[in-house]
Design a protein that fits this description.
Number of strands: 7
Helix content: 40-55%
Order of helices and strands: HHEHHEEHEEHHEE
Shape: globular
Distance between the termini: 38 Å
Structural class: alpha+beta
Strand content: 15-25%
Largest sheet: 5 strands, mixed
Number of helices: 7
Strand order of the largest sheet: 2-4-5-7-6
Oligomer: single chain
Length: 213
């Protein structure tokens, strides 16, 4: 269904665009929808391929020592436009800290968490990212002022293709794979992910990673 739905929409609106009676406004509207559905399908394909590779990648991880603070700042920079679009204020405390792991996989963790924090946040909302460390571990928290989660949703958020109550987020599109990917990557690095949430107020994801595998 997650693949068929955007394909059906693309086909439907392309057929509508063949009509000679369309106004310029209608044509632009339909083109915008098709473009949005293509992006949605592309993102789903990317997430599915990543999940598939994660299922068998533990023995093929490309680990090295890297600066996790610099990496998170790079992800934040990548999403500046999305933050500005919703007028979301992002603050962070990211002291220089090195860990040993697969940089490309861990990058996907911050990418997915920040995407969710923006997507499920409110206009003029806030996001706070903090990094702390001990001699053996690093702790990263991503807190947003969004719609929050109830206990039933928290129990299922790492399930593949699960999305929170659609009646509360009818205009928000997602694959339902992001947090499944995050959990898989964290577990591959012998880490842990927990979530704290207050319905209609805030959600905080806390990632714990060992400095060395």
């Amino acid at each position: 269904h997650d693949i068929q739905s955007p394909l059906s929409n693309i086909k439907g609106y392309l057929n509508l665009l063949k009509s000679d009676s369309l106004s310029q406004k209608e044509s632009k509207q339909y083109i915008h929808i098709v473009d949005s559905e293509i992006n949605r399908l592309s993102n789903l394909t990317k997430q599915l391929l990543l999940l598939s590779s994660l299922d068998s990648k533990r023995d093929f991880m490309e680990c090295k020592t890297f600066n996790i603070a610099a990496q998170i700042k790079s992800v934040i920079k990548q999403y500046q436009w999305s933050l500005s679009e919703k007028d979301i204020t992002l603050s962070y405390s990211l002291p220089e800290t090195n860990i040993f792991g697969d940089p490309s996989l861990i990058y996907s963790v911050w990418e997915n968490l920040l995407t969710n924090a923006i997507k499920y946040n409110k206009e003029h909302g806030e996001i706070e990212i903090q990094l702390k460390d001990s001699p053996t571990e690093v702790f990263v928290s991503v807190k947003d002022s969004g719609i929050g989660l109830n206990d039933a949703e928290i129990e299922r958020i790492y399930d593949r293709f699960y999305r929170s109550d659609a009646s509360r987020t009818p205009t928000i599109q997602g694959t339902g794979l992001g947090l499944a990917i995050v959990q898989s990557i964290i577990q591959m690095h012998d880490g842990n992910i927990t979530v704290k949430s207050i319905k209609n107020k805030e959600t905080t994801f806390i990632i714990t990673l060992p400095k060395k595998l």
